[in-house]
Amino acid sequence: MEARTPHPSDLLALIVLLPLIGAFINGVFGRHLSKRWVTFFAIGSVAGSFGLAVAAVIQLMGMPEGDFLYIDLWRWFSSGEVTIELSLLLDHLSSVMLLVVTGVGGVIHIFSLGYMRDDPSFYRYFAYLNLFMFSMLLLILGKNLLVMFVGWEGVGLCSYLLIGFWFTDMQKAEAGQKAFITNRVGDLAFLIGTFILLFYSWGSLDFIGADGVSGLQTTAQQLAAAPNGTTVITIVTLLFFVGATGKSAQIPLYVWLPDAMAGPTPVSALIHAATMVTAGVYMMARLNFMFALSEVTMTVVAIIGAVTAFVSASIALVQNDIKKVLAYSTVSQIGFMVVGIGVGAFTGAIFHLMTHAFFKATLFLGSGSVIHALHHEQDIRKMGGLKKKLPVTRWTFLIATLAIAGIPIFAGFFSKDEILFFAATAHRSGAGPQTVVYVLAALAALMTAFYMFRLYFLTFEGEYRGDKHTWDHAHEEAVMNWPLIILAFLSTVGGFLGLPHFLHAHVLDSWFEPLFGWLYAGGHEHALYVLNHDAGTEIMLMGVSVVVALIGIGAAWKLYMTGKLPVAPVEAGWHKVLTNKYYVDEFYDLVIIRPLRVLARGLYGIFDVKIIDGLFVRGSAQLVSKIGDGLRVLQNGDVQAYVTAIVVGLAAVILLVGALK
Question: How far apart are CA 240 and CA 238, in angstroms?
């Protein structure tokens, strides 16, 4: 492994620190500040981080391939051989995430100005949003697993705060609790994996050492060469994957994300579509050198991703809440990214992460514009014809819909097809491509094109089916339009960073070569994956993908552009199953939640009330009280009784001493 030269940079600390300052000022003093000042600190801090991020990435681009920027802020703690530094790292992987988080995050902050303008907790909203930005930046720039985990927990906290932002509504408060508790399951697995890895890494959890060579990648190589080392790698990576299923909403821990739509719509765009829910994908890509060494883990990851993509897409087919359609779409699209990780397409996974941030943020903000215009109406059965009232929203929404459906030349076509291409052709030595994974992902792509154009047609085409008063007052706001235009532009051109391989113009492939290049055959002696670079095969698979998308769009057109709302077969068994989301929530409630509540009530009634409160708290107090009652008889103020007691006691002592002699 070649050495990678580290370069110190103070920019990284400033990038992370600015949103924290914004969160502190608005969180502590916001209620006393005008909206203008709250906006200045909230937007200004993120804009500053974005500007510094661009400067840092430009600096990185000017360095030799594989070099990276870092800063060691201070020693966090040291115990024996374990030393953990609070350090930040910017390399070719974190740079892409950094630009996505600060860029898309900044645009969504601007959109929020219009959406949250009349909310009485305007300052609190932006304090939470800035705190999220700080946590997310810490997660992606952390130089070791524990710093990443601090950011990992931070975004979980902010997600809870923002999902339950309108906490006086019990349904929204419960949605926040559901997200928080579900994520704790994955976080526990993440921690267990971290401690196991700490044991085998001789006290260091750095992704790459200060010398540019040592670090967890060296640990992984040493484990792979040791007896039973592959088993350890498999256990650790599976635990990390469980953590990823929580944060990135994959089966079986995906159930929190659809309910997370209870928060303000810009929150859905930022946290639950563009950034936080992709943290698990980023973590696995960061640990690519460990995941790729376990064929068992990679197979599990690919299958879970494909099943999640398929199941979530099928549920989205029948959703009528505009945000719920996009929520299940998000779960499905992250499933595609997870498939990319599982089939060895790490570049494709991060590529789709980036394009998804563009087009899904456009879709969520577009839905926010619709909801805002219709006075918080979210049922698409009560919409229609909105292209007349919301032209900018309509066109940007259509562009993003074309992107997610996989229509050339839009961004989603290139990134999704790269993942499908790897699923169909890439394989390990001695094993074939994962055909089942490819078929499930292709079917999910078909359903994606259908349900997204169903959503578009029912929202913007045809005749309006809602309240006339709402229609008369529906309008767009300029401050909300510009973010939509910027994101729609990125949804259009973003895919050109990853043109098909046969064109030999894949910018991201070259950019990620120092990190992922070792995986693939072709110039790498110990490559794990063999990839079919045949141009004919790639073009054929692209053609299949386009046909699949067109079939989905055509089916949606036939059903929903007939001038009237089709009657859904609500009595059909399959429709009931999809409407009830395969009864997964009900299953969890029956098997996990109810037994835990019964256990909690039993523990409360027996241990808390009777043993802790009854025996130890009140019981000890009552015991002392009884002893006091007995001793009080002796303290009656009668001097003769005191003298008698002293004499009797003294006589008893003398007799006892004499008896002992």
Answer: 5
CB 349 within 8 A of CB 283: no
Bigger pLDDT: 43 vs 522: 43
Instruction: State how beta strands 68-79 and 427-428 pair.
Output: unpaired
In the block, tokens 């790639």 appear at: 538
Please answer whether residues 480 and 372 qualify as being in contact, where contact means their C-beta atoms are separated by less than 8 angstroms: yes
591 DSSP assignment: I
Q: Which residues contact 181 (CB under 8 A, 6 or more apart)?
A: none
> How far is the C-alpha of 349 from the C-alpha of 363, rounded, in Å?
20
Cβ atoms 4, 514 nearer than 8 A: yes
333 CB-near residues (< 8 Å, 6+ apart) = 309, 352, 356, 360, 404, 448
3 state DSSP class of 505 = coil
According to the 3-state scheme, what is the secondary structure of 104-138?
A: HHHHHHHHHHHHCCCCCCHHHHHHHHHHHHHHHHH
Token pair 């509540």 is found at 597
Q: What is the pLDDT of residues 186-239, one digit of tens each?
A: 999 999 999 998 888 777 888 887 766 668 888 888 888 888 888 999 999 999
Q: Residue 48: count other Cβ atoms within 10 Å of its Cβ.
A: 19
Q: CA–CA separation, 19 vs 135, rounded Å?
A: 9
Q: What is the rounded distance in angstroms from the CA atom of residue 16 to the CA atom of residue 480?
A: 26
CA-to-CA distance for 274 and 643, rounded, in angstroms? 86
Question: Smallest Cα–Cα separation from 495: which of 363, 391, 367, 399?
Answer: 399
Q: What is the pLDDT of residues 53-108, one digit of tens each?
A: 999 999 999 888 888 898 988 888 877 777 788 899 999 999 999 999 999 999 99
